[in-house]
Design the sequence.
């Protein structure tokens, strides 16, 4: 359980929430784990099976506190709120920004975060495995990304941002293969490919990106934003453009390093893949279950959020970033703070 930005996250799947004289109480197996005055909250996000009592929901509605329900795995189910929750005003501001020059500022911050985190994935590899890697090659790629990182905030249009992002991706993925330390006969990375992935590393990355995009979409919906209207990715029917924007800064640490850890710990082997006659490579049914189990365990690990300076679980990072994005759109923050992680 975490209380951040006046939002209470209940992540224990078997927890039960109820009302007690103006307080939300969280109970697990008969023990009260937390008691928080409702006057200190503006939103409650529940990842639990047992949910909340009607009395608590009624009191939250009267106080204009929204209550969002998700599965244990982060799938968004819906939000309960009173007669007015202000989301329409937030979304109107979002649409206005998407249609004018302010969208560029958000796009630059998303990509700044992405390049910063790419750089530190490479730097972390140098630090942890200097005796096993071609450190000179990795340092050069890191320096290229650093040079591009310095340019991002000075760019003047979206096409320039996409060009710099593509250039940085070239250097980052050129270093990625060096970071693979186990089973090199199976796990080699030449370039990023998808739809379909044609090698095991890309199959793992595509699955991780799909999960991350889904979690970003749910996080945005929880805070009241429209996940389909982005600031960097253009509108397209059926594409959650803002979720793709938000996940850019999270890809390197949330997905790429997770994939590297699966490979380097020998948690994934050749028997986990389907190699199709068309050249496509996918995780098989059993390995997807194994992947999801490791993904959920990773989300439970504790970190200190670099901007909020509070301890949270990895799995709450998309929700914290979505909250910060909503606060920026409302005008509570001067600029969106991307997730910058070393």
Sequence:
């Amino acid at each position: 359980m975490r209380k951040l930005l006046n939002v209470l996250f209940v992540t224990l799947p078997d927890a039960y929430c109820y009302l007690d004289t103006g307080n939300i109480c969280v109970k697990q197996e008969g023990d009260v784990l937390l008691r928080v005055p409702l006057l200190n909250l503006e939103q409650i996000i529940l990842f639990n099976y047992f949910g909340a009592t009607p009395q608590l929901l009624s009191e939250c509605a009267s106080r204009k506190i929204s209550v969002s329900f998700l599965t244990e795995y982060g799938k968004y189910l819906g939000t309960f709120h009173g007669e007015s929750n202000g989301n329409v005003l937030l979304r109107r501001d979002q649409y206005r920004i998407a249609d004018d020059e302010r969208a560029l500022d958000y796009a630059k911050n998303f990509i700044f975060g992405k390049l910063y985190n790419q750089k530190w994935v490479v730097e972390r590899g140098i630090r942890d495995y200097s005796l096993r890697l071609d450190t000179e090659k990795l340092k050069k790629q890191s320096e290229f990304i650093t040079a591009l990182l310095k340019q991002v905030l000075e760019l003047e249009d979206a096409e320039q941002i996409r060009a710099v992002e593509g250039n940085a991706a070239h250097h980052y993925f050129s270093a990625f293969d060096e970071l693979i330390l186990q089973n090199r006969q199976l796990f080699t990375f030449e370039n990023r490919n998808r739809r379909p992935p044609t090698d095991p590393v890309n199959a793992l990355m595509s699955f991780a990106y799909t999960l991350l995009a889904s979690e970003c979409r749910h996080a945005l919906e929880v805070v009241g934003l429209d996940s389909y209207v982005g600031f960097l990715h253009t509108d397209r029917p059926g594409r959650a453009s803002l979720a793709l924007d938000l996940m850019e800064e999270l890809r390197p640490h949330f997905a790429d390093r997770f994939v590297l850890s699966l490979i380097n710990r020998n948690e994934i082997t050749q028997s986990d893949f389907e190699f199709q006659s068309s050249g496509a490579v996918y995780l098989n049914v059993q390995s997807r279950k194994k992947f999801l189990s490791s993904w959920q365990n990773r989300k439970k690990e504790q970190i200190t959020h670099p901007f909020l300076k509070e301890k949270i679980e990895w799995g709450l990072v998309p929700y914290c970033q979505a909250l910060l994005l909503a606060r920026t759109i409302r005008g509570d923050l001067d600029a969106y703070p991307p997730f910058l992680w070393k």
